[in-house]
Amino acid sequence: MDPANTRESLKEVALDIAEGADLVMVKPALAYLDIIHLIHQTTQLPVAAYNVSGEYAMIKAAAEKGWIDEKKVVLETLTSMKRAGADLILTYFAKQVALML
Fold first, then answer.
1. 35 alpha carbon, distance to own chain's centre
2. Which tens digit of pLDDT belongs to each residue from 18-36?
3. What's the CA gap between 57 and 98, in Å, rounded?
4. Strands ordered across the beta sheet of 47-51
5. How many whole angstroms separate alpha carbon 12 and alpha carbon 38?
6. Which three-class secondary structure state does DSSP give residue 25?
7. CB atoms within 10 A of CB 77
8. pLDDT in tens, 40-98
9. pTM
10. CA distances from 48 to 7, 25, 28, 71 (A)
């Protein structure tokens, strides 16, 4: 799939729905927040955002170097997914965020 082609993304979602999908998953989540938003607007199915390991690793590495406040960035990142329209968020930060909240 061409990552720059929004129409192709929506076409793939429509095909998944036609095949009987129970939900739609978008991965990686951060690079596709706009697609999450469009899918949320165009279907009644739950939309899942998958915060992939590379996104997790970037945040962890930047935090280890002291470049970012890990807690703030993690919460802001997950909030952006929810704000985009994700009904479910799959993330390697789940346990950490559960302890934060």
1. 10
2. 999 999 999 999 999 999 9
3. 19
4. 24-26, 47-51, 88-91
5. 13
6. strand
7. 19
8. 999 999 999 999 999 999 999 999 999 999 999 999 999 999 999 999 999 999 999 99
9. 0.90
10. 19, 4, 11, 22
